[in-house]
Amino acid sequence: DAGITQSPRHKVTETGTPVTLRCHQTENHRYMYWYRQDPGHGLRLIHYSYGVKDTDKGEVSDGYSVSRSKTEDFLLTLESATSSQTSVYFCAISDRDRGSYNSPLHFGNGTRLTVT
Amino acid sequence: LAKTTQPISMDSYEGQEVNITCSHNNIATNDYITWYQQFPSQGPRFIIQGYKTKVTNEVASLFIPADRKSSTLSLPRVSLSDTAVYYCLVVPDSGGGADGLTFGKGTHLIIQP
Predict the structure, then answer these.
(1) Which one of A36, A41, B9, B97 is most buried, by most CB atoms within 10 A?
(2) How far apart are CA A41 and CA B84, in angstroms?
(3) In Å, how far is A109's CA from the nearest CA of chain B?
């Protein structure tokens, strides 16, 4: 399996508090992605990064920010958590520089976040 | 970007062959088809991808007709452990970005004894 570590694996926090989720990779892949998964919605892209300090929004980016200060780490921050952000968050990586055909996504095991 | 349509759920029995079809009527010339599998409490896992005709690996086969407007994931002799959600994606060979990386709700395959 690709070397992807998400931390924490589980977190419970209160509404209004800031939360940061971390994705760490050991594959030196250029692309990193954050998804959230909710019942009835499948996986939805929040933000992605195509290099250090290069990020872009996905389809559900409101309320989230990201940072990538080095290749191996991609951080997802909820500035002020809300109950609607209770979800399972997945990080994924891809080596898309080689062409998408040979570069599928590899996912971490997820972070289960509960906002009370 | 091509939109995909696949059944929400399917049931089958151990030892059967299961075929999951995905429709992608507006697939573009440089798009290819990718399938992922997701078990409960895990992230999706890439299983197979193809551009045309047939692709086979140790896990599954992927059949793509000449018009490429649909594709069929075939799982031979399924077992209980094949119970999972299967996602069909149409991804442009663009070399970057997030184009096509929309998973939708997938097909929930349930295998019974």
Answers:
(1) A36
(2) 16
(3) 5
Given this model, what pLDDT does residue A36 score?
A: 96
pLDDT in tens, B46-103: 999 999 999 999 999 999 999 999 999 999 999 999 999 999 999 887 656 777 788 8
Question: Quick check: helix, strand or coil at residue A97?
Answer: helix
CB B32 to CB A100 under 8 A?
yes
| CB-based contact, B86 to chain A, within 8 Å | no
In this structure, the strands spanning B31-38 and A42-51 are: unpaired
How far apart CA A28 and CA A31 sit, in angstroms, is 9
Q: What is the pLDDT along chain A (116 residues), one digit of tens a residue?
A: 569 999 999 999 999 999 999 999 999 999 999 999 998 788 999 999 999 999 999 999 999 999 999 999 999 999 999 999 999 999 999 987 655 566 889 999 999 999 99
Mention every residue, 6+ apart, whose C-beta is less than 8 A from residue A98: none
